[in-house]
Model the fold of this input.
Amino acid sequence: MLTAPAMVEAFDALGVNAPECETCEGTGIATYLHGPYARTRECDTCHGAGHRLPCPHCTDGVTPGTEETCPTCDGYASLY
Done:
C-alpha cells in the first residue's frame, strides 16, 4: 500500500503560519481550463492545503551543496 508523506506544517518547522495560497486564494481547490471546459481539482501549488510558504532553506527540496533532501521541508520545497 502506498502512502503519501505528510506535508510539513510551517508553524511546526519555523514557528510561523503559512500565508494563504495565491493560486487558489485559500480554498485548496483551483479551476483549470481544458479547451472550452473548466475543471476544478486540488490546487497544484498548495496540494489542497489552502496555504503555502516557500521553504527558506531550499528552492527545490534539496539542500544546496549536499544534494540531500532538505530536512526543513522534507523535499517539498514548501511548508503548509
